Amino acid sequence: MSNLAPSDKAYVPFVSVDNMMKLVHHIGIEPMLAGLADYIEEDFKRWELFDKTPRVASHSEEGVIELMPTSDGEVYGFKYVNGHPKNTREGLQTVTAFGLLANVGNGYPVLLSEMTILTALRTAATSALVAKYLAPKGADTMAMIGNGAQSEFQSLAMKAIAGIKTVRLFDIDKGATRKAAKNLAGLGLNVVECDSAEAAMEGAQIITTCTADKQYATILTDNMVGAGVHINAIGGDCPGKTELAPAILERSDIFVEFPPQTRIEGEIQQMAPDHPVTELWQVMTGAARGRTSDAQITLFDSVGFATEDFSALRYVRAQIEGTDYFQDLDMLADPDDPRDLFGMVRRAAPK
Ligand SMILES: NC(=O)c1ccc[n+]([C@@H]2O[C@H](COP(=O)([O-])OP(=O)(O)OC[C@H]3O[C@@H](n4cnc5c(N)ncnc54)[C@H](O)[C@@H]3O)[C@@H](O)[C@H]2O)c1
């Protein structure tokens, strides 16, 4: 009788939501954000190695479902992610995600992971990494506009990586601001709840917009933005979904992840197709300049790019090694004779 139990080759390490949370606490949230930022930076610095394509998006009236693939030639990765701004009203997340890494040599998956939490961590780590390069020197105060699921991660990453000491919170929903303030209490940040976006921006050198609305919104108008600030624009990440008045873009030096994707999805969808932008990987390798003057407005037009998820999965893969923070998932059919897939199915018939 052949053995019907899965072989070693059938198993793929799987990180569930439960294990991701355990891993976060095992490492510590701030060290994990810093560790993720290191991996993300490392991969930006070897940018030219990667397969790059704008993500594959399937749009509907309600939202978007996207696939984000990339490869560094040795490891392949993708993330499945959705964006449905109406979801929170129905008790669901705006963004959920999972992702996979595979061996390029034989195509076998080597990691499957939840990525709803990991996306929040990697988005925040990326924002703070970029702020480290672009924010004005000595920046210690951030306005955090939009206090939903991503907001505490953004705040803590800016503390851990970019030296922020005070966050000034604003959301059109006071309940969201209260939630964020409560969650951030005791974590070493000075947290100020504000009644308007203008109030949140008082004294802030970094302005993060992280709202969710499926439209051309104007979270920041031109007159709100003074000289010398760094804007971290997170929520404009889909065709028809932006947060900034075009006049702000005219006055800013704009930094992006992957221009072909950002021109479709980012704030710059409001500008001419050849509007000048600087690629972040070039700032990180020293090939392009970041902030060049105190008066300059720098804008990170963030949409989230596949390499950041690849880096995040690569980080998780390294961290779970030798721990119990994963399960072996019987995910790959592995017949004794590779060509006898049908025979394997037949032998599994109930007796
Ligand atoms: N760039 C990236 O890499 C990236 C990654 C993840 C999520 N996102 C985007 O970030 C945004 C936030 O995601 P989330 O998971 O925190 O969403 P969420 O729905 O949990 O929170 C959004 C918050 O924005 C608030 N809001 C809406 N309009 C506002 C306005 N005019 N002024 C102030 N607040 C306003 C809402 O009340 C809500 O609390 C989404 O648009 C999402 O698509 C971007």
TrEMBL record:
Q: For this protein, what is any one GO molecular function term?
A: ornithine cyclodeaminase activity
EC number(s): the record gives 4.3.1.12
Which Pfam family would be a valid example here?
OCD_Mu_crystall
Give the residue range of the signal peptide.
none
Q: Which UniProt keywords apply?
A: Lyase
User: Has keyword DNA repair?
Assistant: no
What's the protein called, per UniProt?
A: Ornithine cyclodeaminase
Native source species:
Pelagivirga sediminicola
